[in-house]
Amino acid sequence: MNSTVANYFSEFESYQKMVDWLSGIAGFDTATLVMVVVISLMAFIVINAMMLVGGLGTYAERKISADLQARIGPNRVGPYGILQFLADGLKMTMKEDVTPAKADKVLFNLAPFLSLFGIFGTLAVLPISSGLALSHLNVGVFFLIAISSIVGIGIFLGGYASNSKWSMLGGMRGASQIVSYEIPVTLSVLSIVLLAGSLNFKVIVGGQTGMPTGWFIFHNPFSFMAFFVYSIAALAEANRAPFDLPEAESELVSGYHTEYTGMKFGIFALAEYIEVFVLASVAAAMFLGGYNVPFHLGGDGIIGQVLQLGAFVTKSLLIYYVVIWIRWTFPRLRADQLMVVCWKYLTPIAIFNLVGSAVWLYAFKGQSILQLVLHSGGSSAGGH
Amino acid sequence: MANNSINVLIPIAVCLGFAVIIYLVVMLASKILRPHEPNELKNSAYECGEQPIGTAWSMFNVRFYVVGLIFIIFDVESVLMFPVVSVFKKLNAMGMGGVVLIEILLFIGILVAGIAYCWSKGDLDWVKSYQPAKKK
Amino acid sequence: MFHKVLIILSSALTVASAIGVLVTKDIVRACIFLFFSLFGVAGIYASLGADFVAVTQIMVYVGGVVILMLFAVMLTGGPGKESAGSKGYLLIPMMGNKITFGFGIFSGLVLLLTMAKITKSVIASVTISEVEGFASTVERIGSLLVSEHVLAFEISSILLLGALVGAAMIARPRKNV
After folding, report:
1. How many structural domains does chain A have?
2. Which domains, and CATH codes, for chain B?
3. Is ipTM > 0.90 here?
4. Would you say A236 and A347 are in contact if contact means Cβ atoms under 8 Å apart?
5. Which residues 43-102 of C are in CB contact (within 8 Å) with A?
6. A31 lies in some domain
7. Does B119 contact chain C (CB < 8 Å)?
8. How far apart are CA C124 and CA A339, in angstroms?
9. Nearest by Cα to A121 from B20, B82, B79
10. Does residue A318 form part of some domain?
């Protein structure tokens, strides 16, 4: 089950021929080398696509917020202002980089890097399609949750190293919020892992179908609740409104990146937007059928892979849209409410979901609620 | 071919490597392009126009530390749960589901007792209201 | 090939950051060096084929314990005024004495030589080979945890309970002081 994108390509004949040809030229076995090159190319594509998603995320954010508030939004750069993010990126690159005199300069430079590092680690296991995903690690979900917790350290350090009071408060809040909300996220993920019987994204997504009837969200009432617990907690983990306390502009100026200017701020923002996409895509993969195409259109060939990619991106972007929608709809929580929501509501509910899923799996032999309804003779059809 | 080999870790290493490269390239590019004209006022910490007094590195409330501690405990719990939960389906199909379910319930139950204790004692409250001790 | 690169890189990261922890005077920087050191250890675990342990290392130590340490540092008010002098041996208060440090270095050297003598034979017998069975260690760990080692599994839960209650007790302010 452990496989990488190179494994997928190695099933083609031409790949083997190329490896043999290269080995003949170089005089040694180049299989690993070709593998690294293929993976690097694919990773380059994925990472650039993600940076594009992150960049377009800022544009989408402004455009959607404008839409919700009956404004026009960015409309100057390119058609409908769609190139706005390129202009923003260029502007940030050319802005002066101000490092506060009292700051810890090494850590000040390290903090944005740690945020980026944690997010890029997650991209390696992102289940973009059954063949093209960079790797289907056996411990995929677990790895994704683990490596994304590095972002919290980046945010804390950003606040700490600035040596500004606003930043410090934002950094402390951010770190404590991220570690707190990691618990409901992990527990919700656990209840899906229980239904799928594996930590590998390929198995988890493979356990679902293209049509909503086979999605894990509709598998049983507990997974249905787990989806919402996951969504709320993931919003908080990505520091999105209504949980954007680390950067609450009305109380903390700009939170942990108050002192950051230029491209270092840009890296923080980029990491945040990519994290939203990653968490949205995990929700899509775990609960909403992931890359499954309805009726298994296109098969497993290249066309099928592209369709799967399309299904995956569509689902993720829909969730992304809802995330932005939520941001411009709900008011921000207070710091004490934040902790109460996490520890007194989400965590107990998530534990209940986990136990409930285990009991369901035991009692009904892993059948989903739909299968049960159909088996009982259809008298209670439309139960869902 | 390389199905069960360590090569499955290459994508992770490559992605983490890209993070390093991209950060360095972006920083280098902006270092070349951007102006650099620091002055004392610009380099002081931003406090809405006031002169910053002292350092921001001050003592923080103990509740952050408590949250950290509780987080570590639940983290370890979820780490222990991950392997058990991922084999539960397979064991259930083999007919061992009942025993394993009881084991999982026991494990979670003990921890729920812990969080219930903390809850009842008010350790989960962010804003704590301390009553002075009653005089005997 | 990748296996060797991974081992060398993670070992270098671990050792270099561990030295950084010792050398730096700033306690937060020491925490960050520790972060990289622990990350390197995760890399070493991964290179040995223990995927689950490696990710556990990242999850608990890199993402959890380091944050806890940083919170603990901020609990005490961050890095204070440096108590160290310009010379390294004054760094540790109450122990900064040329005689104690000389003695410490001497015993360290003796220990190092002894260890080298012991590990020499061990290293000679070990050959670095590619890890074959990178199959799921998770499922094996899981099925062992619920069958053979079920007592350890349940007792770890009680241990965690003790830690949770203890942490809450210690952090609670004394009401009748």
Report:
1. 1
2. 6-50+59-120 (1.20.58.1610)
3. no
4. no
5. 51-52, 55-56, 58-59, 62-64, 66-67, 70-71, 74, 78
6. yes
7. no
8. 55
9. B20
10. yes
